[in-house]
Amino acid sequence: MDLVSRSEWKARSPRNRLTPLPSARGTKIHFVGSYVNPALLQDCGRCTALVRSIQAHHIDGNGWSDVAYNLLVCPHRRVFLGRGPGVLSAANGSGLNQGHYAVCALLGDRGLVQPTAGMLNGLHDAINYLRRHGAGREVLGHRDGYNTTCPGPVLYRWLQMGMPVGAQSPSAPSKPSNPTKPTAPRFPGRLLAYSPGKPLARGEDVEALQRRLKALGYTIDVDGVYGPMTAATIRVFQRTVGLVVDGIVGPRTWAAAWR
To answer: Any alpha helices (H) in the chain, and if so which ranges?
Structure first.
């Protein structure tokens, strides 16, 4: 875990004494919810600057004692220490902060809207860190119990899928008892993969694959775009059928989807 201390990101001292919260039912996931510059992907120094600006907004704009979140996670898998564990957050909503700690992904509703694998792994790191310091097993989105769209459609879908990423072990999706088994269409002749910062693969082949996964019971959007959520679903599928888990669709993964 790459934990960035408050001194490392040059945090301001809290205006007032923070309320202790030695234990909680779990963790709630948030996102920034406004424009986030995609340049964060190439420059982690911008991540540090964004964390400082969030703290300034919360203290000077909202009048809060400190940055609202216990931890913040950037696209490079760095976990920034906000209020830290054992402290009541100010992010979940009135009357809801006692139940859960708060973790914010540096992701927006415009600009940078797709989480990287590093960010998803970083969220796992943050959740496990809080669990070692009094958080229970429950992981929810900010919108669970509070009227908001936070943490956005992509991260919320990721939570619903069981937070799959890399070597993690998400829950396998339920499958219908008698899934259809049509003849496999010809492999499109190109590898389908997701790489942060690179153009997303789009096309009828991606849509056909997504449609097939959906028919098998996986929760996935059929939009013809091979983004991080489709790649995460492929990893779950590959693990289920005993293939190499890399999120890349080559001839073997393509054929297995229709086998």
So the answer is: 44-56, 117-131, 152-160, 204-215, 228-241, 251-257
pLDDT of residue 176: 44
Looking at residue 181, its pLDDT comes to 53
Are 89 and 70 a contacting pair, CB within 8 Å?
yes
User: What is the model's pLDDT at position 182?
Assistant: 60
Structural domains present in the chain: 2-160 (3.40.80.10), 161-259 (1.10.101.10)
Q: Taking a C-beta distance cutoff of 8 angstroms, is the pair 53, 35 a contact?
A: no
Whole-model pTM over 0.70: no
61: tokens are: 């704009």
Q: Report helix, strand or coil for 233.
A: helix
3-state secondary structure of 138: strand
How many CA within 13 A on the CB side of residue 229? 23
Give the Cα separation of 220 and 158 in Å (integer). Answer: 10
pLDDT value at position 228? 86
Segments of the chain scoring below 70 in pLDDT: 165-182
pLDDT of residue 172: 35
Cβ burial 170-203 (10 Å sphere, 16+ → b, else e)? beebeeeeeeeeeeeeeebeeebbbebeeeebee
DSSP 8-state secondary structure symbol assigned to residue 57: I
